[in-house]
């Protein structure tokens, strides 16, 4: 009996492609400093790594802020931009909390005005998958194809996995961004304090370095000596203010 092994091989290749995409996505986003940088990398990686996808966009809704957009193709960024109207695949995916697909935008579309703009930009198929980032940010990743029918059920599975993985990585980027902001605020507070600010001024004078670097030197000394930062600062200021013996 002859067995046709071609379909399992195609499925296996699909799994391998998706695994490679998620690895590349992790490598690209694991150390980004901020959310917006993460979005830019995400859409470029998805466009380049998913066969059949010609461009990729992201629509982000942030509490208390205007909607954000990232696009692998700047000329098509308006497809993700809610300033052109909320009636889009991305907003439908976000509202329904489910993946939205349209294989041929020349056929009847729930978003006629958007579909007309998309076709004018050479886009004929779309998959939008909701992305949960954190309690302040939700969004949708949008995969676009220039050919009608190019986006298959395998692309839908990839989009679902991509959205889930991207949500985790973008949440981590948001955490790093918040931690950096808190650190900056803490640095500002410390520099405003008398003895720590004085010690930083001493180090800046001695080393010819900026204040953040001088504060890092002070922190490193406190860590090495295993004593509080303020105590290190007091010792340094006391040392340089002590009159020298003639």
Shape: elongated
Number of helices, where a helix is a run of at least 4 consecutive DSSP H or I residues:
8
Q: Bin the helical content.
A: 55-70%
Order of helices and strands, N to C? Answer: HHEEHEHEEHHHH
Radius of gyration, in angstroms, nearest whole number: 26 Å
Main sheet: strand order: 2-1-5-4-3
- The number of distinct β-strands equals 5
Class from helix and strand fractions: alpha+beta
Question: Mean pLDDT, rounded to whole units?
Answer: 83
Biggest beta sheet attributes? 5 strands, antiparallel
How far from one another are the termini?
A: 104 Å
Q: Strand portion, in percent?
A: 5-15%
How is the secondary structure organized here?
Elements: H1 6-29, H2 35-49, E1 55-62, E2 68-71, H3 89-96, E3 100-102, H4 112-120, E4 125-132, E5 137-145, H5 153-192, H6 194-207, H7 211-225, H8 229-241
Antiparallel strand pairs: 1-2, 1-5, 3-4, 4-5
Helix pairs in contact: 1-2, 1-5, 2-5, 6-7, 6-8, 7-8
């Amino acid at each position: 009996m002859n067995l046709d092994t071609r379909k399992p091989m195609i499925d296996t290749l699909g799994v391998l492609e998706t695994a490679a995409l998620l690895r590349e996505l992790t490598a690209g986003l694991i150390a980004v400093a901020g959310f917006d940088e993460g979005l830019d990398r995400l859409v470029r990686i998805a466009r380049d790594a998913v066969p059949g996808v010609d461009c990729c966009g992201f629509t982000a809704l942030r509490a208390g802020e205007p909607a954000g957009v990232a696009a692998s193709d700047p000329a098509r960024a308006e497809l993700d931009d809610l300033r052109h109207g909320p009636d889009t695949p991305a907003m439908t995916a976000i509202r329904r909390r489910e993946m939205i697909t349209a294989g041929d935008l020349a056929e009847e579309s729930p978003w006629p005005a958007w579909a007309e703009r998309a076709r004018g930009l050479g886009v004929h198929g779309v998959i939008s998958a909701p992305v949960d980032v954190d309690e302040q940010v939700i969004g949708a990743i949008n995969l676009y194809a220039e050919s009608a029918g190019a986006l298959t059920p395998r692309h839908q599975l990839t989009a679902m996995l991509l959205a889930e993985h991207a949500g985790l990585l973008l949440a981590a980027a948001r955490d790093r961004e918040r931690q950096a902001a808190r650190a900056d605020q803490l640095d500002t507070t410390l520099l405003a304090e008398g003895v720590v600010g004085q010690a930083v001024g001493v180090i800046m004078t001695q080393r010819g370095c900026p204040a953040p670097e001088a504060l890092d030197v002070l922190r490193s000394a406190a860590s090495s000596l295993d004593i509080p930062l303020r105590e290190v600062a007091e010792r340094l200021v006391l040392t340089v203010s002590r009159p020298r013996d003639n």
